[in-house]
Amino acid sequence: MTPDAPAKPRRSLFADLTPLRRSPAFARLWIGSSIAGIGTMMTSVTVGLEVYEITRSTFMVSLVGVISLVPMILAGLYGGMLADAFDRRTVALVSAVLAWVSTAMIAAHAWLGLDSVALLYVLVTVNAVAGTVIGASRAAIVPRLVGIELLPAASALNSISAGFSVTVGPAVGGVLVAAFGFAPTYTVDVVLFTAAFLGVITLPRMAPEHDALRPGLSSLIEGAKFLRHSRNITMTFVLDIIAMTFGQPRVLFPAIGALVVGGGSITVGALTAAYAIGALLSGIFSGPLGHVRRQGEAVGWAITVYGGAIAAFGVVVACAHLLGGRPSETFSTGILPALVLCALFLAVAGGADNVSSVFRGTILQAAAPDGMRGRLQGIFIVVVTGGPRVGDLYAGLVVAAGFAYPPVIGGVLIIALVALLLRLVPSFRRYDALHPDAN
């Protein structure tokens, strides 16, 4: 190397913290979202456990997410239009208030001992709608706070936040439910969610572009036209829908803890946390992701690994079912071999899903113009939150139809469909992070 040659940037194995250092506003938003996310995931697993305790039906558990799907789709579309037409900080703040109130009402339902599954469905739907709008607004805000060049690092940091929340939340939720019951567990979420307000209130003003369309049919049509001609962005949505529809086994966890492996709520918390631990670890060691240029191809490989891990998880569950005796809902060391293997494959799936999420989010934010980000993020949030709910329905229907192992079937379908789509859309395989292109 000559003395005048520039030194190559040092590549670290660990996550790049530059966005937190350069943007205090992003740092506050990240911290607040991380704390609030713990409580959100506690409530998510707790609602499933409560519905299962009331009904003893996996299908009824699956409806917790399915019923809120259509309202979430509408909220994502309209919330995205709001984020493009109004101050994104204000949109996020109003939505956060609605989410907090609905969480408080879920806690009140438990404290009053109402045991109303219908009321839980309604409250969870309201909470999901508010969360969708918050997510769309917040994600559209991030590029303005950190800049396009730091989007992969910011996405990886957000994945760490999500992974930490999903790791800690379900595990703590399962233990709290077992020790204290549903009502105190929901109440902890009410307290933790207040941290979300800190991150949003302290944001700078996020005014829309001067020529932004007001929410309505014209705005929706404009977004649809842009997306129709944006094959690379569309592929990020389609691939995630495939992965989450056929590879989301969470609705099976209560039955696995009660009827297959054993261990009850502690097993449910452990399985849910294992998935998140994989996501968290892949976020912590995400330094190399910022140097990947073929991000579309990386998405394809990540989802393929995800499908393989889900299929392997299904094989372990099937073996435990066929070889096991009469499992107890009380945790015992006898369930450890099956539980460890299930957790291992779920951790691999969580890590692969997180890598896919980092690149899909980066492609969307980098390839879309700022005035379109709110609407596209609304669709993105609908996909990443609605996809698992469709997956819940898939798993519930497969079990109801008499097929005991939906993860095995789903994992194989994921691998096959991803290979087919990458072959049909070569532009996505060639997507270059240095030259973002929606088409």
UniProtKB/TrEMBL annotation:
Bilayer topology annotation: Multi-pass membrane protein
Q: Which UniProt keywords apply?
A: Cell membrane, Membrane, Transmembrane, Transmembrane helix, Transport
Transmembrane region(s): 29-52, 58-79, 91-112, 118-141, 153-180, 186-204, 251-278, 298-323, 335-352, 393-422
Ranges of residues in domain Major facilitator superfamily (MFS) profile? 188-439
Question: Does Transcription count among this protein's keywords?
Answer: no
The highest taxon in the source lineage is Bacteria
Subcellular localization is given as: Cell inner membrane
PANTHER family registered for this protein in UniProt: ENTEROBACTIN EXPORTER ENTS, INTEGRAL MEMBRANE EFFLUX PROTEIN-RELATED
Per its record, how is this protein called by name? Answer: MFS transporter
